[in-house]
């Protein structure tokens, strides 16, 4: 059996996952990182994007995280996220719509507007969510 | 029968009060559940955050830089962030908590330390204004669904003072929710950070790999930590408030019931005495004729 390590994933809204994992992949500040058991202690921020975990036994799960922190200790991995959505709960049509709207706002607005920044943030979020969806689809095939 | 009438109206007024208290009890009961759910939802995040920060405080940062939040300074001024309720009628909840806060304040005052308070919640603002302790920040009227951004402004005042060296220690005071019946006041040191009990105590010196650099990361992390803790305290206090109010109103309703029973007895006695007297008068009147 593959080695595993305890992992807690919590967001400000509640505990999302707590259990043993064989692998965790997260969008860290300096690029995507994979954490395996016996990783060195690490503390990093995470960006918006997909978090993938491989549970003990090999089931994979992907969720969307909007940002937060990741801590690795010899015996635990802790993900402190701002918000988390489970991959299956993402609504592709709604995200696509949000992306279109944000794109439109970006094209029409001027870069000095506060709206412009908001739209840019929304666009980045929608793109990250779409990445999560495409990952999920990849695994299902 | 003047006495009888007086008692009647007294019973009437108690009955009205009882109606109000029992209605408030039911309102508080329904709010309790929601407040508890909200508290439970935020708890894991705050707890994990505490653990992680505890680890960070234990790590040997090899940079020539100690974060101000980790630095133990000589204590000359102490700040308190006190989380209280906006509304009263919740039993001894606020009073007990103020007592705990004052006890800690007096201890520091004994060592000639100056005190400043940031109050969240109307009751705390009022109490500390009256007690003569300088209130440097105040927020009230948070409602049943407080948001992080409503609270963080007040906490930020304290943090800025801490960063500027005007305050050397910050405490967070609030109520801890044990269960619906029991709420305990809690005075907790917020800054400088208290190293957590490292269950995985390692003998060798260790440090994290930081991504991006330590300074930037820790700044962000500590801000989020304080935010999470203060927010958690507010949400927990809300759950305490509703439970305490429910219990206080339940007691008030029961007491009103007892009082009414007693008055009812007095009233009936007075009524019977009056009838007996009247009968006696009639009988003796008839005998005289």
From TrEMBL, chain A:
Bilayer topology term: Peripheral membrane protein
* UniProt KW keywords: ATP synthesis, Cell membrane, CF(1), Hydrogen ion transport, Ion transport, Membrane, Transport
Pfam family of the protein (one) = ATP-synt_DE
Q: Please tell me whether the keyword Cell membrane is annotated for this protein.
A: yes
| Start and end residues of each ATP synthase F1 complex delta/epsilon subunit N-terminal domain | 6-83
In this chain the ATP synthase epsilon subunit C-terminal domain maps to 88-133
Main location group: membrane
Q: May I have one GO cellular component term?
A: plasma membrane
Cellular compartment(s): Cell membrane
Q: Name one GO molecular function term.
A: ATP binding
Keyword check for tRNA-binding: no
Q: Which domain of life is it from?
A: Bacteria
Quote the function comment for this protein.
Produces ATP from ADP in the presence of a proton gradient across the membrane.
User: Subunit structure, per the record?
Assistant: F-type ATPases have 2 components, CF(1) - the catalytic core - and CF(0) - the membrane proton channel. CF(1) has five subunits: alpha(3), beta(3), gamma(1), delta(1), epsilon(1). CF(0) has three main subunits: a, b and c.
Which PANTHER family does its entry note?
A: ATP SYNTHASE DELTA/EPSILON CHAIN, ATP SYNTHASE EPSILON CHAIN, CHLOROPLASTIC
Query: NCBIfam families of this UniProt entry?
Result: ATP_synt_epsi, PRK00571.1-4
Task: Report the sequence similarity comment from the record.
Answer: Belongs to the ATPase epsilon chain family.
HAMAP family registered for this protein in UniProt: ATP_synth_epsil_bac (MF_00530)
Name assigned to this protein: ATP synthase epsilon chain
Q: Which organism is it from?
A: Natronospirillum operosum
Q: What is the lineage of its organism?
A: Bacteria, Pseudomonadati, Pseudomonadota, Gammaproteobacteria, Oceanospirillales
From TrEMBL, chain B:
Write out the entry's keywords from A to Z: ATP synthesis, Cell inner membrane, Cell membrane, CF(1), Hydrogen ion transport, Ion transport, Membrane, Transport
* Membrane topology according to the record: Peripheral membrane protein
- Keyword set includes Transport: yes
Question: May I ask which residue range the UniProt record assigns to the signal sequence?
Answer: none
Q: Which organism is it from?
A: Natronospirillum operosum
Q: Which residues form a coiled coil?
A: none
Q: Which gene encodes it?
A: atpG
> What is this protein identified as?
ATP synthase gamma chain
**Which example biological process does GO assign this protein?**
proton motive force-driven plasma membrane ATP synthesis
Q: Which SUPFAM superfamilies does the annotation name?
A: ATP synthase (F1-ATPase), gamma subunit
Report the InterPro entries cross-referenced here: ATP_synth_F1_ATPase_gsu, ATP_synth_F1_gsu, ATP_synth_F1_gsu_CS
Q: Which PROSITE patterns match?
A: ATPASE_GAMMA
Q: Which family does it belong to?
A: Belongs to the ATPase gamma chain family.
Return the Gene3D superfamilies for the record. Answer: 3.40.1380.10, ATP synthase, gamma subunit, helix hairpin domain
The answer to whether the entry has keyword Transmembrane helix is no
> HAMAP family, from UniProt?
ATP_synth_gamma_bact
Protein's job: Produces ATP from ADP in the presence of a proton gradient across the membrane. The gamma chain is believed to be important in regulating ATPase activity and the flow of protons through the CF(0) complex.
